[in-house]
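Whether sequence alone determines local backbone shape is best considered at the level of individual chains. For completeness, the protein is quoted in full, as a sequence line and a line of structure tokens:
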Amino acid sequence: MASGSAPAVLHLVLGEDEFLTERATTGVVSTVRAATPAGQDPPVVSRLGGPEVTAPQLFELLSPSLFGEARIVVITGAAELGKDAQSAVFGAARDLPPETVLVVQHTGGGRAKALVADLRKAGAEEHAAGKLTRHMDVVGFVRSEFRTLDVRVAPEACEALVEAVGTDLRQLASACGQLVADTGGKVDVEAVRRYHSGVVGVSGFTVAERAVTGDVAGAIEALEWAMHTGVPHVVLADALADAVNSIALVGTQRGVPSADLARQGLPPWKVKKVTAQTRYWSIETLGSALQVVATLNGEVKGGAEDTSYALERAVRAVGTLASAG
């Protein structure tokens, strides 16, 4: 690897999201290979990891190469490494052989949790790969994908794409790339609807908007159609939670400038609409609605056998609370 501008040799990919973990790892590999001097063979990539990995295996892989070839060693599943294997990784991280780059994938927990702090002390360059659990973070991921593709996309179109595709980052990344290719970079709400028809027709946000304004019958009708056309249940639950949480954010901070609300996660273009929705709510009913959507989140993401029923019950409850004011 070239001197002076050479990339970091120690990397910690931290988080539980498999897609982000692999993307970060691929990015490191690409950066290192791009820095390989002309005429020199690109580094060989080796992967090893998991709870069954032994210290001798790691020592062999991380020892100086007899022929001095460049290497990238990727340790997967580092959170479950045994004590001796952890020591081997940390020992190598503090004094890596020449022409060796070490990438450690770690969830942040597990029996090797302490290895995270050790690698940080050793000067690892850190790459975030945590799961995106908040709706605004998933939408932010979509915006970032489009920026990476050198395309400017309005927030409404990013929201529509999340509604249509769901919260799986791998699928969202693929959808972003395909939309840019299909539209020549002219991505708007209509383009999302055109290329994802049958899903966005009745969206999670249609259901949520009717519920939080007290239209119980309309919300249930929209919910049934959304589920019939294949809108993922988790997207419907996230949309309802986002609507209630947005009302709570605005309703408890009346008079706060839009710019300040934006810094707390509410885009300026949504403030006017959400402000109008707050008239349907009191502090008491809003508190109850927040409990409803929190319960729904747990049910849809693994706690309920019948998520369709859980969604209908939650939508009906939120709509009833809104109509009660």
Remarks:
- The radius of gyration is 24 Å.
- The chain has three domains: 10-128, 135-195, 204-324.
